[in-house]
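Possible regression after last week's pipeline update?

I re-ran a chain I had predicted before the update to compare outputs. Posting the input and the new output here so someone can diff against the archived version. Not blocking, just want to make sure nothing changed silently.
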Amino acid sequence: MPTIVEPARETRIEGVYDVLVAGGGTAGVIAAIAAARNGASVLLLERGGFLGGHLATQLLEHSVGWFDAAGEPTVGGLANILVERLKQDAGSPGHVRDDTGYTKVRLPLEHEIFKSTITQWVTDEGVDFLTQTMAVGMQGDDQQHYVIVENKSGRQAFAAGAIIDATGDADLCSLSGCDFLNDGGAETQPVSLLFKLGGVNHSKLLDYVEAHADSFKLGVEAKALRGEPYVNLWGFGDLLQRGYAEGRLSLERNELHYAGHVRTNEAVINVTRFAADATNAKELSKAEFVLRKQILEFARFFREMVPGCEDSFLAATASCVGVRESRRIRGVTILTDADVRAGRSRTDGIARGGFPIDSHDPKGKGMDGTEHVPRGYDIPFGALVPDRGPNIIVAGRCISAERKALASARITGTCMAMGQAAGTAAALSARTGTPVRSLKVSELQSLLRAQGAIIGT
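New output (post-update):
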């Protein structure tokens, strides 16, 4: 490929912080607040136009991962404060039953309120943030790092003693030359675009569910869904197969997730998918086209084939392609599939997970793994720390984990727990001048416990 040579230039340092967080999703927001609460000056960067990550951009139907299969809580601390703030703002009713039986509870969200609630919370905690700002480079040494960004103001740089990569794709780790468990082009879970339907008649829809209960994965009797403010369904396989056979759908699926909001006659639909490398701009652009074509087909499918949805309409779509899996760092420690399957406890745990292994087949008709995890498991500190590179720590779906392990740990509730651990560790590193990978895990654990986080014994 031909290349060009860019002239050398000076980039102005616009600010100096103790901690810089890249990525304003659930992991990044909680990490930024954790760092601020532990005395650090913090800058939070978000490449999109608002904070909130997949819960906001994807209209994600609910947040999960808060309890294990035994009903024991796995997430506490700052994440619980978020729940209370959402309840106060009428942004969530709190935890409700999972009708599918896949997990114990889920946390429904009002997406627009959620975005405003977390933005207000970040501001209240004294965190500086920049939206529409993408990190494009890193320089520096163990004591001071310079993150280069580009936004509407041009090219800028910010200095920080400790860096948190909560981009989901480990973008800063990639820019820093860190190693990864998966090479470029490796198979990953598919990307998706969720969408919202309006004009749903839930009473009529539930008539169909009761009459065809064997077409759904239900954790309760179908009649127990009536009278509830939220309806969570996993199924519709018979209608989907017929829709594909009749040429109404170009994507063959044997299931979909339906999150209904009865009061507003709305539902968020999780069904689209496309196999793509989420770190490749061309593939993401192709995904945007393919997935939006699928959305139009599925919206028509609901009108034409799903009882109760005859008058439904496409009310909203996700604002960008949603990613389940991309880069995974090679960390000091690896969270293994066996760790998750066994519900393993560790002396170096700094967060807990407990959601089922939820792995989507990138090219098939459904899931390639839905394994229940018997009890909560510990996420080791070393899974958040690259085995080499600058003073950087990660949180979210780019941690050091095997693929099936990540399929459990990537869930939003678990990401918030990892965010609190990463933010606390970064603040401790900046305050003491100790590189993240040299911190005493016992000291970090003591801080986390004192601040309400749930970690292993």
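Follow-up from reviewer: compared with the archived run. Residues 13-186+325-450 form a domain with the FAD/NAD(P)-binding domain fold (CATH 3.50.50.60). Marking as no regression found.
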